[in-house]
Amino acid sequence: MTPPFNTPPAQPHPASSTSPRLRAALFSTDHRVIGIQYLVLALIAVVIGTLLSLLMRIHLVWPDWPLPLHGPILPEDYLALVTIHGTIMLFFVLTTAPQAGFGNLILPAQIGARSMAFPALNAASFWLTAAALLILLSSTFVPGGAAISGWTAYPPLSAVASSGPGQALGMDLWLTSIALFAIASTASSINTLTTILRNRCHGMTWERLPLTVWGWFTAALLSIIAFSVLLAAILLLFCDRHAGTSFFLPTGDLVNGILHQGGNGSPLLWLHLFWFFGHPEVYIAILPGMGLTSMLLANFSHRRVFAYRTMITTTLLIGLLGILLWGHHMFVAGLNPFASSAFSISTMAIALPAAAKVLSWLATIWRSRPSYKTPMLFALGFVSLFLTGGLTGPILAQPILDEYLHNTFFVVAHFHLIMAMAGIFGLYAATYYWFPLLTATSQHPGRLLSEPLGHLHFWCTLLGAYAVFLPMHLTGLAGEPRHYGQLTGIPGPGGSLSPAGALLSHTLPLNRFITYAAIFLATAQLIFLFNLARSLRKGKIASSNPWQATTLEWHPSMNPFPPLPASDTPEISVHRAPCHYQPCHYQSNKVEVSFLPQWAPIPFEQDEIEDVTDTKPE
Amino acid sequence: MICSRLTSACLPSLCLRSLWLDHAAIRSPWLLPRDASAHGLALDHHLLLNLWIALALLALAHLILLIGLLARRHSEPTQLWRIEYLPLAALALLFAALTLKAERLWASSRYTGASPTALQVEVTGVQFAWYFRYPGPDATFGLTNPSLVAPGEGNPLGLSSTDPHSADDFVSSQLVLPANREVDLRLRAQDVIHGFSIPEMRLKQNAVPGQTIHLHFTPTTPGTYAILCTQLCGLGHYRMNATLLILPPDQFATWLAAKQKAAP
Ligand SMILES: [Cu+2]
Ligand SMILES: [Cu+2]
């Protein structure tokens, strides 16, 4: 007999004293507890990362503003801010929250599994991730300061301690942190894959898997491939730093007066290894959000997902192409120009499955009169930001244009819109949508986040996101490079403004606007934090399926409230693909909408549903 | 050209331009700095074409999204080929055409090297300065040796005095070039990766330690231009810039003669 979902054996029910409860919460192997732990970690990380980005923006337009308790921001401080902001956001927010956080919370329930495949490994992954974050943050306080070579850590800068601040102990800690993170991510992805492969319930065939599960599945595959390469690269760099090897150091490299005479390595090897990881990484961050968006658009439009099978294919195709085109980060890095052409063409190719996804989303909501609940708004926002950020992808994929745009704010705008903003919108959609499942315990039913606050939060965030990142395209086109802590005051001969100072000072008015917009965008997130804090205690009690969803996580027995005794937990089986609604009966508030969850055995009409037969997963 | 007509016809963007920017150095509503190179015009046209296409697709997709949300409810869309495969095929063709054009431009600037008559200059990136070495009358660069590098003694590149070719080499902190003559740059880095970039020449290429990378272009308009470092290279990254001075050919000859005379 499988233990019931809500009371796994490893986690005894709250006793009278606090310490066993605390210990149960901290060292739980229950995937839902671990999922919450990951989300709390990501929340802490996103707050820190956002504050760091605000400091950067403020320094950029008011360089003389002294940071409280610190004083003026020095060039190395600015670069440390950039580095930690990028590392924290990419790894500890955009990788952790959708994949490990919501993956643990929702994925098992969506496939009808009672638990993850390897609960102990799952807990170990979380604690490794938490240790990685602590190590990263601690690097701020070591002599020499935190690493300053950006999240890409290109050698020789990162390989030689003499190359500047942050490259000694700070860089070692950075590498240790990311190595631990890579191990944790690989373990967690193996867990995800095994769970999807082995723990699907009766009738959950591949074609009936919700698209979110396909997103998690593809992201997990990419994680295993990409993070293992990153781990290898980090080990090589460690050897270069401490064991006298020279994988990434050419002979005769002279850094700060110290001559390197070892073997003949090449920094380009690091770029290849790093971007072989770095490019799939952005798909790892965005694929779960793409899957969720598909499901939410269908849910709130009471429609099927348009071209469901194509959506599965494009998800896999994006994953496959995603690991083949790392070289488009290296058009000006010193590759053979013919290689750039090959990478350019493969990058243009990935625009097609991505466009197919957008077309499917547009078709799903076309003339659907959806209900505009907050999760739906964020899903629509995801579509908009994905489009806006995605459309500059093909521009950057052309080497001749990248020659001008590479490492300018045009690139910063591109990836922040598509990965950071669309990624965050996916996370917000997930939070608003699954909040009842996040908050339900055996003691009380789940709650909903406030809708009016959610609407306000959505509109402010959408407006803020566009206000911050659209103008960055223009400062990039005007020539503003990334990683510049200062845009003016670069003196030329005779105290006049140098040509560089003159060129870059053009972007100052726009940069001021971007900084104001960034402060607005960050402030608007307080609405969400307030909503979160308030709704945890006072939120409206949710029914067992508040959004009339069709996927299994909303099955009454998957909801921990009211708790079912183990013997009464029904065997779940799945009878159809998700997102089956009866559109002709749809009227927004008056009549109850006909929808057919995956677990309901009876179809509305036989001719409406094509696959009602039970099939076992192979 | 279609795109340049589009460019100047776009009134709202022009208003924005007058609002934010006062300057003749910037042209086009997209805030591109003025181009002063021979290959830059074609690049700019292609870039502007791409930007307008992206903007048009963005507007179109959002329009479809809005109309789809506002229109009366209707039964589900079913004709797969018309709303899935037809637009996909159109996009595939569009992207293929853009790729093809971009590849031709890329090939013309990168697949082959400079002509043998091009002016030779070596560019070296060092934390946090650019050095420009001219080969002198013998047209040959002398050997350098990293163990001889001594910036304090006026030898930042480690020129070896035993090599006869290095006797007439001279090093400048400013890149001075004649207008309308092709230049063949040999790009090197002494310590870490640097990004050699001249926005107004539409030029960017990383300088990688251990590699010599050739880059060729023809400047057209005399003037001074910014040379930036665009690859994060340490704490002085933001101030690692230099000046490119484009002179009319006769003035360049005078400058070169003076420098060669001053060289030891
Ligand atoms: Cu540099
Ligand atoms: Cu630099």
TrEMBL record, chain A:
The Cytochrome oxidase subunit I profile domain covers which part of the protein? 18-573
Compartments annotated for it: namely: Membrane
Q: Name one GO cellular component term.
A: membrane
The record, for Gene3D superfamilies, names: Cytochrome c oxidase-like, subunit I domain (1.20.210.10)
The annotated topology with respect to the bilayer is: Multi-pass membrane protein
Q: Which key words are in the record? A: Electron transport, Heme, Iron, Membrane, Metal-binding, Respiratory chain, Transmembrane, Transmembrane helix, Transport
Set out the biological process GO terms recorded for this chain's protein.
aerobic respiration; electron transport coupled proton transport; respiratory electron transport chain
Q: What is its main location?
A: membrane
GO MF term list = cytochrome-c oxidase activity; heme binding
Q: Which InterPro entries match?
A: Cyt_c_oxase-like_su1_dom, Cyt_c_oxase-like_su1_sf, Cyt_C_Oxase_1, Cyt_c_Oxase_su1_BS
Which spans of this chain does the record mark as coiled coil?
none
Family, similarity comment: Belongs to the heme-copper respiratory oxidase family.
Protein name (database record): Cytochrome c oxidase subunit 1
Q: From what organism does this protein derive?
A: Tunturiibacter empetritectus
TrEMBL record, chain B:
PROSITE patterns linked to this entry = COX2, COX2_CUA
Q: Could you list the residue ranges that cross the membrane?
A: 48-71, 83-100
Q: Has keyword Transmembrane? A: yes
Give a GO molecular function annotation for the protein.
cytochrome-c oxidase activity
Record InterPro entries: CcO_II (IPR045187), CcO_II-like_C (IPR002429), Copper_CuA (IPR001505), Cupredoxin (IPR008972)
GO CC, one annotated term: membrane
Q: What domain of life is recorded for the organism?
A: Bacteria
An individual GO BP term: ATP synthesis coupled electron transport
Which compartments is it annotated to reside in?
Membrane
**Family annotation (CDD domains):** CuRO_HCO_II_like_5 (cd13919)
- Please report the stretch or stretches of sequence annotated as the Cytochrome oxidase subunit II copper A binding domain: 116-258
Report keywords, A-Z: Copper, Electron transport, Membrane, Metal-binding, Transmembrane, Transmembrane helix, Transport
Q: Which is a Pfam family this sequence falls into?
A: COX2
**What does the similarity note say?**
Belongs to the cytochrome c oxidase subunit 2 family.
Q: This chain belongs to which protein, by name?
A: Cytochrome c oxidase subunit 2
**Source organism per UniProt:** Tunturiibacter empetritectus
